[in-house]
Design brief:
single chain, alpha+beta, Glutathione S-transferase Yfyf (Class Pi), Chain A, domain 2
Length: about 290
Amino acid sequence: MTQPYDLVIGDRAYSSWSLRGWLLFDAFGIPCTLHRARLYTDELPTLLQQFHPARTAPTIRTPDGVVIPESLAIAEELASRHPDAGLWPAEPKARAIARVLAAEMHAGFTALRSHCPMNLRVSYTDCAPPQAVLDDLARLETIWAWAWDQTGSAQWLCGDYSAADVFFAPVATRIATYNLPLSPRAMAYVKAHLAHRSFRQWRAMGLVDGADQEFYRRDYPTRVWPGPAPLPARAVEGVAAENTACPYSGKAVTHVLELQGRRFGFCNAFCRDKTAADPEAWPQFMALL
């Protein structure tokens, strides 16, 4: 049997680079074995000792043992190894534009990154963006409009969802978290990211997979997260449930959530809690519901 890819990520709620790496696998149906380490501890550098010469997340190891520690390099290598997965547009012009966009996002927008670090656990009413952040937003508007004009795409940047959109997914989260000003068309693009199945799953896991990181805390007034409103599920005690096997693993039920007056079981607390965070993000659970 062919060995799967290994993928190293940091905290889902905060690691924007890790979000990119994971989307390059999940959104395009490429399986991997996940290795997670908490930021601002010795967990990540310790884990990465197994992935020389990598220093950051995301990092992957290919089935033949090649370590690739940069998200743009990961995108290109996965596209080469999985040409039918659709990471880049098939049409040459759209593919070229997609690569331009991904490269600029990979290397730029430092003011936006610095003033508005990714935090999927909160949304603020205002973050008082300085002019440098507003300039970055204006540049986003310019290159997104250019891509839509050149490719005729109605929703994503270059036709179907591609690696170019993956690279802007963390930007969409920053706009959602910090309530940054955009044109209606650009904001519709952000909303598409927030509603994307893979992103919703990542955020649901990010809400429950560790304590808050104090580095990302801000004192701005908060608002409700602007993405799709989750169904009101909650964790409950006991193991009595409609199903006897976890919808993800098939293992015996040990933890239960309640939704719409019904009880559903899972094989561990994380399976339950990620589902309770956003039930509609998980097709296996929705099949039960």
